[in-house]
Amino acid sequence: METGPRLAMCALLQGADWIDFATVRTLLDVSDSVVSKHSRALEEAGLLEVRKGAVGRRPRTWFRLTPVGRAVLASHLAWLTELGSAVDRQP
After folding, report:
1. How far is the C-alpha of 8 from the C-alpha of 27, rounded, in Å?
2. d(C-alpha 55, C-alpha 8), whole Å
3. What residues does the Winged helix DNA-binding domain cover (predicted)?
4. The pTM of the whole model exceeds 0.90
């Protein structure tokens, strides 16, 4: 499973309410297809909420983490911190 783009997307979304597709794509420096693929996987896992609408006549897509997504991200980051501490303690 590719976790790099998904983790980056979750980290980006953790500090915001809604972020539009184009902003996610630009800030992560990935293609539309990468954002689509990973946002779909996160949505199917219940970690991401997707809202579709329009600005004027142009269709838009926005993302935000669900409460479960925020909890999962916090748990994952805590685990990574713990892992880093354990590695640092190795002789």
Report:
1. 10
2. 26
3. 6-82
4. no
Give the number of other CB atoms < 10 A from CB of residue 49: 16
Give the number of domains in the chain: 1
Query: Cα separation of 30 and 19, whole Å?
Result: 15
Residue type, 65: L
- The domain that holds 69 is classified in CATH as 1.10.10.10
For 55-72, letters b (16+ CB in 10 Å) and e give: eeeeeeebbbbeeebeeb
